[in-house]
Amino acid sequence: MAQLDTLDIVVLVALLLGTLAYFTKGTYWAVQKDPYASSFANGHAGKAGKSRNILERMDEQGKNCVIFYGSQTGTAEDYASRLAKEGSSRFGLKTMTADLEEYDYENLDQFPEDKVAFFVLATYGEGEPTDNAVEFYEFMGGEDVSFSEKSSDEKPLANLKYVAFGLGNNTYEHYNSMVRNVTNRRR
Ligand SMILES: Cc1cc2nc3c(=O)[nH]c(=O)nc-3n(C[C@H](O)[C@H](O)[C@H](O)COP(=O)(O)O)c2cc1C
Q1: Any transmembrane segments, and where (predicted)?
Q2: With CB atoms counted within 10 Å of each terminal CB, which end of the chain scores lower, N or C?
Q3: Could you tell me the distance, in angstroms and rounded to a whole number, from the CA of residue 180 to the centre of ligand 1?
Q4: Sheet containing strand 95-99, strands side by side
Q5: Reduced to 3 states, what is the DSSP secondary structure of residue 106?
Q6: Does residue 122 have its Cβ closer than 6 Å to ligand 1?
Q7: What is the Cα–Cα distance from 93 to 89, expressed in whole angstroms?
Q8: Each residue of 80-112: pLDDT tens digit?
Q9: How far apart are CA 84 and CA 66, in angstroms?
Q10: How many angstroms separate the alpha carbon of residue 77 from the centre of ligand 1?
Q11: Cβ pair 84, 34 in contact under 8 A
């Protein structure tokens, strides 16, 4: 029987380690972490029986910037998570994302001076909201176009400092109409 010399053993051990590494990749090492996982969890906290009051949630979590999203297939949600990450790393904001359907909107006009809200909103169909933004859209007056004639007391976002981003496709007739409507609710 042939004898194994040191070189053979080294080669065998290397082969064994290589095989082990190959089969454990993604389980014990090179596990991909979702960089947005924590903000995603923040955004879904409402489902776990948490408060629907956004200001309460922000205070509980020590946040000063909320990024609401209205998303159907995840693009706006993903964009909201990226904004949250950038806002935190570049500008030191204490950010959280929020699924629009998990919160109430009555106190949006009570946001204190030191807090800011973002809305990242996708448009569908005939300029309609995503499923998770339907209630928000109705709260904002839905299709009512007479907002410019209303007093600021009647405008849900009149006292809110906010930034609005729209996601749309300019081949549609109602291009980006969700974000246009939300912006009009202030004026
Ligand atoms: C069936 C369908 C209808 C759409 N309707 C509109 C529209 O009326 N206006 C618009 O600006 N964009 C429209 N879009 C484009 C979406 O708003 C855009 O793809 C957006 O990035 C989707 O965001 P989401 O993945 O967060 O849902 C439509 C897309 C689809 C698939």
Answers
A1: 6-23
A2: N
A3: 14
A4: 95-99, 65-70, 116-122, 162-167
A5: helix
A6: yes
A7: 8
A8: 999 999 999 999 999 999 999 999 998 898 999
A9: 8
A10: 13
A11: no
